[in-house]
Amino acid sequence: MTLASNLGFPRIGRRRELKTALEAFWSGDTGAAELEASAAALRTRHWKLQAGAGIAHVPSGEFALYDHVLDTACMLGAIPPGYGWSEGKVSLSTYFALARGTSAADAPGLPAMEMTKWFDTNYHYLVPRLSAGQRFTLTSNRPLEQFREAMALPMRTRPVLLGPVSFLLLSKTTDGSDPLDLLDALLPVYAQILAELAEAGAAWVQMDEPVLALDLTDKARQAFVRAYQAFTTAPEILLTSYFGPLGGNLATAATLPVAGLHIDLVRGAAELDAVLDALPPERWLSLGIVDGRNVWRTDLRTALATLRRVAAVRGTRRLMVAPSCSLLHVPVDLAQESALDADVKGWLAFATQKLDEVAALARGLDEGDTAIAAQLAASDAAVRARQASPRVHRTEVAVRLTGATETMRQRTSPYAQRREAQQAKLRLPLFPTTTIGSFPQTAAVRQARAALVRRNITHETYETTIEGWIDDAVRWQEELGLDVLVHGEFERNDMVKYFGEQLSGYAFTQHGWVQSYGSRCVAPPIIWGDVSRPAPMTVRWSAYAQSKTDRPMKGMLTGPVTMLQWSFVRDDIPRSETCRQIALAIRDEVTDLEAAGIAVIQVDEPAFREGLPLRHADWAAYLDWAVACFRLATCCVRDDTSIHTHMCYSEFNDIMPAIADMDADAISIETTRSRMELLDAFVPGQGGGTAGYPAEIGPGVWDIHSPRVPDTREMVELLGLARQRLEDWQIWVNPDCGLKTRKWEEVRPALKSLVDAAREVRRQAAI
Ligand code: GLN
Ligand code: ZN
């Protein structure tokens, strides 16, 4: 019999109950017992939900209060010194200190552990910090505790562990040693965890090894062999890879002495035949055929055909059907979305619905089409409606896309010439000052937007309110002496949502939350149809702001790659095609801004680097279309209009040629924390031996992630470091990023220091 199985369920709860519980605990309103009780209630609800949907292998132990990688590090005793742990179970206060740091009030303040993106998802994990000679010890067997908790229901679950090789490769060492060298020290602890699980009656354990989707060294592949040879006793191990094909790691993964292998059949569909060839017949094969990280309904008939092809080769005795990866990355339940467009809703499936799909597919494979006739009919109808929808596939968008020629991606003149035209028009001093766009989103700002949405105020009142804030912002930017002003982005709820709401082809959910990190959730927009821009989106505000000043007012847009990257995207056309559609929509906006007298236009691309594919071999193709989309969005302006871009913190070394190829006139980046080291990539001969960055650069001189207000001296010092790496004419003076999360009490003095710092550096340069 085919087993319906799941790899992981969202922890946060359909109404973000975990967020509420965590925040109540952090603020001191509730105690540890209440937090643990809320967490346990969520686990129970989710286990029952999965079992009720017909899932035979329900995962447990993948639940984490904050992050599953942090849980693993804590379980293994890999806890940096200074956080109050010496042995035994890790306390909640140590756990949250590692996750979030402690404030300086509980002196001495502890920094949170570093956080980074979980593969190419928008989930972030805490990076374990290890060092040579690291000792590991089992502090408490968390999967075992959750397994027992489920047994009490009673339910026999499948415990989930982050596998040892992935754990090590996702860690960082503080001393430059290779984390893989710690494998031998780590394996006995894993063996102990497994033995205890077997003893408690676990038949299967799911070992997540997502690093199998990355380019691995021979040493890493050898580590897999060593690790899994060490776990030969019960329970049965299901080795799970996901987020991509196994590629060069297939031979290793397929021959490890484990009971079964899970593959991502969504992203790794092309690899299926190779897997069928390589995997010994006595192994279980778990087919991740329901997309675990996107929101679309599965085409059950097509999926079933694929499953039957596998069954024809291997039989159904050792088959599992599953989502491609943990459902952590999709919202909990579509049924809550009462306001979604009815057509669009019919094409979607969130975590709860995906469980039904998995169960239906397993049943259909065993019992035939008639056993799941109703599900098949509903799926067929949805597939047909989506394919045929004239709202999804719009002729005018297709026509425009075909008409997007190479010349539309080219500025009229090369940068050197544009610089002259822009200089003549803007007359900016050396080291011009500006900000990245947003000003504080105060309670009043958010209330005004909320009131408009709830229709508590009229559109006119709303507009005059925003205009009042713009008036103030313009006035004090002039008073401070900033050179290129911004309007402040008061009208924007979010840099993607604001635009998505005004574009065709986008939908927004009410409860479509997915965990970003800890208690923080995002509700990404869903791009469901061809994208176009029915009307200008920002021109009204930018033109108003420009009318209030003689200084240049910078127009502010979100770039096509970021619009794509921070949304759920269509699975019926390539990402690159959607991105080009968005690029054309942004291009319309750029054109209109220029026509409205805006001479500096910033197109933000903070997600540009995070779009890089997991495997190096796929980078060039991505960079190619990503750069082309940015150019398509921006190369419509005159020589004397200056195009800026902004990218937050990024490692630019390995992608410098692509950054230069975007052909912006200026780029601003986050450089304060790295003390300008990130700028090395922009220096000729560095950054992979490139020609350097040919245009202007605004290296951030104020770390806006901290409430600390830096003084002029610090900024002058940073600018000195920048001047060692760049030509004076290249340098802009600006904060690291937008100021929406800061307070006015911080913004005013910090920007005053920034303007003073620019003046001081101008003096130094004149000597
Ligand atoms: N213009 C945006 C702002 O200032 C940029 C934000 C970002 O890069 N994440 O808020
Ligand atoms: Zn930024």
Describe this structure in words.
This protein is an alpha/beta fold. Among the domains are: 60-240, TIM Barrel; 421-502 and 537-766, TIM Barrel, CATH 3.20.20.210. The protein contains 26 helices and 21 strands. The strands form 6 sheets. The protein has an 8-stranded parallel beta sheet with strand order 1-12-11-10-9-8-6-2. It has a 5-stranded parallel beta sheet with strand order 17-18-19-20-21. Strands 3-4 form a two-stranded antiparallel sheet. α10 links the parallel β10 (260-264) and β11 (284-290). It starts with a strand and ends with a helix. The model has no long low-confidence stretch (mean pLDDT 96). Glutamine binds at residues 436-438, 489, 495, 556, 604, 606, 646, 648, 737-738, 740. Zinc ion is lined by residues 436, 606, 646, 648, 737-738.
Brief summary:
About 40% of the residues lie in helices and about 10% in strands. It is an alpha/beta fold. Among the domains are: about 60-240, TIM Barrel, CATH 3.20.20.210; about 420-500 and about 535-765, TIM Barrel.
